[in-house]
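A quick aside before the break. I want you to see a complete sequence-to-structure record at least once, exactly as it would be stored in a machine-readable document. Don't worry about memorizing anything.
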Amino acid sequence: MILRLADRTTDDAEAFCALSNSLYARKVTPEYFFWQFHDGPNRPSLATAWEDGRMIAAYGVHVCAGDATRPARAMTLDNMVAEDAQGRGLVRQVAALAHEHARGAGTDVLCVVANARSLRAHERHFGWQRWRTLRDWQATTSGARDVDAQVVEVAAPDAGLATLQTDAFYARTPDFLSWRTQANPRYAYRWVEVRSSAGLRLGQAATKLFRDPISGAGFGDIVALHVPDSGDVPRLVGALQHWFRTQAVSTVVTYPIGSDQERALLRLGFEPTARERYVVGQGQQPPRLSWGMLDVDVY
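That is the input. The structure line, written in tokens, reads:
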């Protein structure tokens, strides 16, 4: 067996896709491999295990640089072991290589946003602790109220709104937002701006729409909200909810960041769902660290 970091080659990309597509219904392409582990702004890497020329395990890492207000941090993602290779302790070996890379990049915080299986693996093999449980919030658009605002599609987020958020895992910098929402080979995003009838800009949002291939029902995600300090969160979210209805979308989902957004969602009929993910990390969760859909959806 060979342990190494994946290279930017077609062979490694195809081997990664073969492993991932053998395990998950949501398929990936080589473009996703290059985007996720070679083209991103967050110093990505992918530790891999190979046997007889086949990738049998993978463990990815994104390293986000720190600054004076936030520690360097790393998120692990696309962690997987081929079905016929499970039970051999491979996750410990590829994780050790990935964690070494993360620490070598100066990481102070290391975590994973995990499903139930990954949660058990990180607790059992590494002694990581569950920091928090995440649930998405959902509402229908049938009860959306008309609001004194309009939603306009824009080409890209305004630089003044794409500022660093010290409480979010990934820095909401222009480079990150461009990579995440405009060069993404897996999902199609739309940036929209909400304006009052007087033309006052209330905020911007990254959105994602998709349709059930059988029923044709429309679903929408509010992936990120960028609200000025003086912004009205309920008015902004309400306008987006109404806009989704005009797009023939029946259900809207988002991950709120902070209590202000949670209160606004409750007022607009959103409720937490039973779908759970788990933030798991080394030691105790750093104070004020929070996750939104831009972080969780990367997983």
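Two observations worth writing down. The radius of gyration is 20 Å. Residues 90-104 form the longest helix (15 residues). We'll return to this after the break.
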